[in-house]
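Reviewer comment 2.1 asked that we show a complete input and output for one of the modelled complexes. We chose the 5-O-phosphono-beta-D-ribofuranosylamine case, as it is the one discussed in the main text.
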Amino acid sequence: MIKIAILASGSGSNAENIIKYFSDDKNIEISYVLSNKKDAFVLERAKKLGIKSQVFTNKEMKEDTLFLDLLKREADFIVLAGFLLKVPGHIIAAFPNKIINIHPALLPKYGGKGMYGMNVHKAVKQNKESETGITIHFVNENYDEGAIIYQAKTKITTDDTPDDIAKKVHQLEYQHFPRVIKKTVEL
Ligand code: GRF
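Response of the prediction step:
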């Protein structure tokens, strides 16, 4: 079995979608949901879906070997699904090209520090873009700069609000993220 740990800080709708997608996969299992936020809704979703979960503080993730030990024991790959903390260097070093992130825009546009969640969609709207999309990429030491695995686009109309844009992007995420994860980890 290829084991995947999901790291998430928020609602976790992508995490839930991924867990359901792999629920009867013969080759891949979601082994853990890990969060840096003790009240993240993703933890409720994990519980409901019968996936083990654990919370680590930002400090524990950065400094403790316990977090790295758990990952080494429980995961072959790490998937970031709305994980807002920068992945510490020692974790990246231990999982080279084995950490996959999804970014809700077409990188290299709208990436980097501060570009997360609604900030991204508001900036896209402000710049009157006619399209946006998702970028699935490997994680390296710099925000949003690892090798791109896959991108998908969606059109934006002039009357789309940032919320409408967010909805369109989420649809793309649900549609593509699980299957791109499968393809990537089975390579
Ligand atoms: C997604 O839009 C993802 O691209 C970004 O954070 C959001 C997480 O949403 N990295 P959810 O928690 O999966 O609903």
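The beta strands are 2-7, 28-35, 53-55, 77-80, 99-103, 131-138, 148-155. We note this here for comparison with the apo prediction described in Section 3.2.
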